[in-house]
User: Fold this.
Amino acid sequence: MKTLRRTWNRLWGSVLIENSDLSDEIQSHIDMQTADNLRAGLPPEEARRQARLKFGGLDSTKESYRDQRGLPWLETTWADLRYAARGLRHSPAFTIVAVLTLAIGIGANTAIFSLVNQLLLHPPGIDHPERVVGVRTEYPKLNLAFNGSSSSDLPDLRSSTNVFERAAIVRRGDLNYTDGPAPERLRGAMVSAEWFDVFGAKPLTGRVFTPQEDQPNLNRVAVLSYAGWTRIFGADRNVIGKVVQFDQTPYQIVGVMPANFEQPWNTDVWTPLGLDPQLYAPQNRLNESFFLAARLKPGVSFEQGQAWMRVLTERVYNAGIPISAIAKNGNWSISLVHYTDDSAGDNKPALLLLLGAVGFVLLIACANIAGLMVARTSVRARELAVRAALGASRIRLLRQMLSESLVLAIVGGVMGLVFAAGAVRLILRLAPENAVAGLNTSLDVYVMLFCAAATILAAVLFGLMPAWQVSRTDLQGSLKTEGRTNTSDSRRQRLRSLLVIGETALALTLLVVAGLFVRSFLRIQTVNPGFNPKGVMTAMYRLPLAQYAAGRDQANFHRALLTNLRAAPGVVAAGLGYPTPFSGDNQAGSFQIEGQTLDPGDPGPHGDRRFISPGYMETLGIPLKRGRYFTDQDSADSERVAIIDEDLARRYWPTEDPIGKRMRVTANNAPWVTIVGIVGHVMHWRLASDSGVGVYYFSLLQGRSLPGATIAVKTAGDPNLMVGVIRDAVRAADPHQAVHTFGTMDYYISRSLDTRRFGMRLLGFFGAVALFLAALGLYGVISYSVAQRTREIGIRMALGAKRQSVLALVVGQGFRLAAVGVAIGVGGAALLGQYIQSQLFQVKSFDPLTVVATSAALLGAGLLASYLPARKATRVDPAVTLRCE
Amino acid sequence: MFLWESNRSMEQRTDVWQGTLALMVLKTLNALGPLHGYGIARRIEQTSENLLSINHGTLYPVLLKLEQEGSIASEWGVSDNNRKAKFYRITRSGKKELAAEEREWQRANDIIARFSALGGESS
Assistant:
């Protein structure tokens, strides 16, 4: 307590420069002593002398008093920092270059880290995100794996109370909102009761769902997202308790979530799932149409949760119900994934790669500043020598050099933070919407900490090297030589050369990686998706079941819509289908082949399933290989027909002609369907990799229909003109139905490349920054070397050396440095290549063309960087330089 | 090595000295009430019957330390013979501090006294 109080007072003593009245006090003390001495009979002179003697050393008293008043180490540090700041102010060019370089390095790192933080580490709106997991289902024997699960897995997880705190399932449940000025489609999520608790999310106003509301027909309540609330209801506080029409059914709005919670996707509105309890029963196990999210109990690790999932899987195998055999045959299993990894998806490897890239940029920036500081030490060698001669210890000089690094780093770090704030804003504006949805531009405490850590790391990186140099410098030598070259100078120059080689190597490695991604991207763009997207506009609709309960009514709507579309002007072909390629939706299922008996242990045939109308294949230009497409004659009353793709045909009818064969979905009493055509395989998710799963197409207009589909319309002209055509066609079929999510096929394919494209651009940008910084470093070294060799160059020219040979001398020096750096960088890129191979497309991780192109770019930049000082060297007037000493 | 050790022991001695001086200051102020620096120095010399001769200057850092700890407080005033001087007085927490220090000192004294009483028999 006492010590604390004293330290506090001393801290204030250090900070406040108050006028001490010690001198007055001492004066009064000595006066009193003198007076006493006089009284004792001493002569005035002697009285005063004795008084002084008695008091002791005035200066030493004042000094120990001052030391006691403040905290000496704090004051020296402060003095060092002030001295460093003053020194930096006196060389503005150096300071500006160093601070800007550093700000770019730290800013880029902080900006990318802010994305990593929001997407992977601390996604906004989720309490303890590391404890939130999703369930993944795998069927290794069917070559099938996806993040999703069955409703019957929910009771298993919820009863595992020793592992999971909460668990909930969600299913996409978009809704039509027709109370507004125009019918609108809302992005909906149908969730079981605990959904919000899994994420620890609390409503902004109102409440979330009760377990009672999570039941069939009691689930007519809704919670709005902040975005939905503002967009649709104008952020009206009185909306709570209001009844609105969704899908022509009354729903009561009970709550609004805060802006940072939109899980599981950019949700407008959540409604209770209200599943029939039957669907939670074990026999519905392999009916995977949900996403299951759960919260691990505190203290339960992800690995422990994972182990528990294996136990649950075993339980299903041993349950002894019919589903057990199917599960076992497919080698079915459920496991956990980190929820943040699931929601980040493809962004995760891309982000980590970018984080590595900006790390390189920061290293290069540090090497650059270290080089500048080493150069600065040679200029200041005399100043340092004088200070040493006046009694400053090496430790003291070192401290002073490190103070300078610290001041630079702090200024650079603060500027870096400002840069980062701008960069994040820019990235979020330029980045593809689906990659950065829900991210915000504010820099939270983790980002601040990261920035501080990067700053300190940078200060150590670029500060230690020059400081070490100082500690080795021959100070007497510097005093004697008066700025002429000496051994420590050449040692410093060698060190700078090493730094330049290092940063050139780093820059080349980064450029090669960026180049590999550019090449991959170019390759991907030439991939044939298996259909012709040109001139195709798509849009989606979904009929409310309240009005279109019967399959026949749904089919009638589809048919009417199709007739309207075909008759519209400008339409070359039109069709309906679900799910369409690159839409992000998919359907898959097992099927049976007539006459085929399965071996015990064989899970049976499996494939992706599509429902399409006549005209769909023609609209998308999916090539017919054999047989025929669907026609208008394939009606509800005629024979049921199917089309399969080549992959499915090859896999399940390897030796015979599938046309005329019959298949049916794996269910009791499902009708048999005759295969009438074989078409080419269509890529469904992304151009870079195909799922490898064969596809079978059923008719949307036969049998059990679907309440919604995607409209595809092909035109010879501008596909955007088809938006109005589609709207008119839907309105003519039923004026109450909403049509939404318009987008050309080209757009969907391009969107599937968005993340890759954006990552490639950022990588390219960082590569360019690295190239620039490396060239800047080389320029600095060569300029300094030219300045040092002015005399030598002058003598050479006086002795008749040609301009060209001087030019060659200097440029050659720079080129050699760059070439060594490039050689090391090529090695580095080769080593690094294996780690990024999985993200490349049809490009080897060591791609000669990329290496040659990037090396040429870097050497070119190196030549330019050495040419500028070399040209200056040739302009030297020999007469002047010889006199210049 | 030798140099380092001797430096260190000197430092310790100063620490002890400072601590003792602080105790004397507190004791003096407690007994006599507010005093200026010169007065304190004189009283300490008189009490020790001039066995203790200090450089008066060393007193001031000690006074500052005590003031920072809150054991004493100071105020400018006028001395008996009309001289401007800074007067120090002991505070309530200073009195508590003094009592504790005295107990501590007494204990140390007792221990040393017991050892002294052993005499030179064993040697």
Notes: Chain B is about 65% helix and 15% strand.
